[in-house]
Design a protein that fits this description.
The protein has helices at 3-10, 15-20, 26-59, 103-108, 118-128, 133-143, 150-176, 203-216, 262-276, 309-319, 323-334, 338-351, 356-371, 383-396, 406-418, 427-441, 445-451, 460-483, 497-506, and strands at residues 65-77, 80-92, 98-101, 189-201, 228-237, 239-244, 247-251, 254-258, 284-289, 303-307, 424-425, 487-489, 494-496. By secondary structure, the protein is an alpha/beta fold.
Length: 515
Amino acid sequence: MFKRVTVFLSSITTKREIVSEEKITFKMLEENVFQIACGISNEIMKNMLEEYDKQVSETRDKVRYRHKGYETTTLKTKTGLVEYRRAKYLETKEDGTKKCTYLTDEALEINNVGQISSGLIDLVVKNIKEVSYRVCAETINNSTGVNISSIGVWNIIQKLGEEIKENEKAKVKAYDEDRLEAGKKETPVVYQEADEICIYTQGKLRKEQIKRYKKEHPDEEVPKRVRNIELKLGMTYEGWENVGTNRFALVGKEYVSGYMTGEEMAEITNANLYSKYNMSKVELRVLNSDGGSWIKQLVTAGVVHQADNFHIREKISTHVRETEDVNILKEMFWKREYKEMLEYVEVLKYKYNGEIEEIEKLNKLKTYLEKRQDSIARYNDNPEVKKKLAKFSKRTGLKYKNMGCQESNNYSLITRRFKRRRMSWSKDGSENLAKVIATYASESCTDIMENLNLQILPKEFIEYAQKHIREIEEDIKRKKRNSKHLGYEFKQGKITYPNIRNILKDVPISELAYR
């Protein structure tokens, strides 16, 4: 059992080798110890897998699964390649058909992501949201004992993304058919926001977009915006938690991302909320958005809709020429003088002497504000809502503030990853990556991942690991006890370590001489 472990332990550089080495750095020492630790870890994993395979073999349905010998395979883990032997079976199905199967691999769902451990998958996801596939692979290779390529990382993300899509479809279907289990968590308020970013397409999709535009506009040059595609991101949360002086963090964040209609996002969002919360306890639900046509489909019964203040301020800044007038309109907005804002836009038409270009921009601004007259007021301006929020805050300890977190979350989750260096994407590849990033950033990520078709190691593995670790510890302790009686052999006799210590008590080591 400890053959490999002993080999790794014996490979540790001895004191004499370190002294005689011309040059040794801490990096070299660290790498040596790291490789030893990975080797021990891989040996433990190998023994765990093979012992679990024995347990599966003993408890299997021997009529249905006929033992056909053993085969060796290799599993990629955070500590490197683990080679293990597992039994092969001939399965006889109910319809009489037969196929070869590996029960251990099926039980651990190893084959679903190409024989890669869940620990390695976590490393991939944590890195891929910040860096490219190539850099992600290099980072993992340099910090772990595994060797994975950029294509291997890409395959993992695509597999995860497709699994998340299937999970969302299944949850929505169960919700529509009233089969979805209701959540138990209670919250009096649910906040909801949504927006999209435009990213560049590539390959076949880009060619189709350009071809379509040329057909519709034969006499025009194709603008760059034609190859854009809207990647949507929706989020829900419960409120704000005070985490420091004037510092707040969102509580209960859940994300939904992908290329979808507003109706599809609403279905996924409602199913997610239903499976997480006891919705009968939710007394206030607020949607904050820029008022886009697709986002309006997110407004369901009982939802308070308000226009996003960031987009209102941005519209003012881009459609009003003078900085002074921009500041006046923004001040009116903060003072809740919404009618006065429309009147002042009319005044500006005369102030700018009726210039055609400026008039067109001001008309667009006025139309934008008029369309949002029903949602421009802040949800917490209502006196009754204010009283409720104060009562909720005492009960939950959370703060209930003005909304407008979507732009920040857009940037931190998907904008920074998808729009750096003017990158272009395929539709399926970008959607799968966005879904993986959004899922892992959600509070219910653990619950979601449990429903995916990925490996979940059985509890017995913990017992196996503890058992092997105890055996290794006992083996090391035994060697230490035996080393106390070791010594140096001479023609005249033997000097042991205890004797050396006694000699050095009386005579300094510099004065020792052979007599």
